[in-house]
Amino acid sequence: MDVEQDGLTVDSSYVLAMDSSLHHEVIAVDSLYGISGSGKYQLNITGQGKVALMTSGMPLLLQVTPDKYVNCDADAIVAWSTSLRVQMQAQTHSSGVWRRRGNTGEGWELSFMGNGFALVQPSELLPPQNAQVGSGLAAQYGMGQQ
After folding, report:
1. pLDDT tens readout for residues 50-67
2. What CATH code is carried by the domain that includes residue 91?
3. Is residue 122 part of a domain?
4. Which run of H or E residues covers position 45?
5. Higher pLDDT among residues 110 and 51, named by residue
6. What residues are paired with 45 via a beta bridge?
7. Which domain holds residue 85?
8. Rounded distance between C-alpha atoms, residue 106 and residue 97, angstroms
9. Dihedral, CA atoms, 86, 92, 97, 102, nearest 10 degrees?
10. Strand order in the sheet with 2-3
11. Are the C-beta atoms of residues 14 and 43 closer than 8 Å to each other?
């Protein structure tokens, strides 16, 4: 992924490598709720260069503009433009609705506003370490071969 003048905020778990021309600073995003996508250490990366990121599944880059904000699951966010405003909010849902992952405490999302982008993965799992990528439904959710 290219880093340009806006900078990039990325979950440190997803960073594999970065150009030596880039500068980084470790920050903690406060979370009273222990939500994985926003309660860990993040890197603010500035300068111009490339960053290699590892995700579970093919990531999707979503454009954010003042008239088109983006909401995403807090556990699926990988990175975003540092210039964006970020808010955490509870999703509204019926507790009786079946969810594919059961009762996981899901219901928190991050809302991104301003000009920039948000990079999300099609999974709520951390990138697999030393895992072979499988095929079918298991691979779609970053679970490797079954």
Report:
1. 999 998 889 999 999 999
2. 3.60.160.10
3. yes
4. strand 41-46
5. 51
6. 8, 24
7. 2-140
8. 12
9. 30
10. 2-3, 49-53, 15-18
11. no
- Can you give the pTM of this predicted structure? 0.71
d(CA 29, CA 59): 22
**Does residue 125 lie within any of the structural domains?**
yes
Q: Is the pLDDT of residue 119 over 80?
A: yes
**Per-residue pLDDT tens over the stretch 79-95:** 999 999 998 877 655 55
In a domain, 145, yes or no: no
Name the token pair of 89: 């909010």
The answer to the question of residue 146 being in a domain is no
Cα–Cα distance measured from residue 86 to residue 114, given in angstroms and rounded to the nearest whole number = 9
Q: Give the CA distances from residue 105 to residues 45, 86, 96, 111, 118, in Å, rounded to whole numbers and listed in that order.
A: 30, 20, 14, 18, 23
Give the number of domains in the chain.
Answer: 1
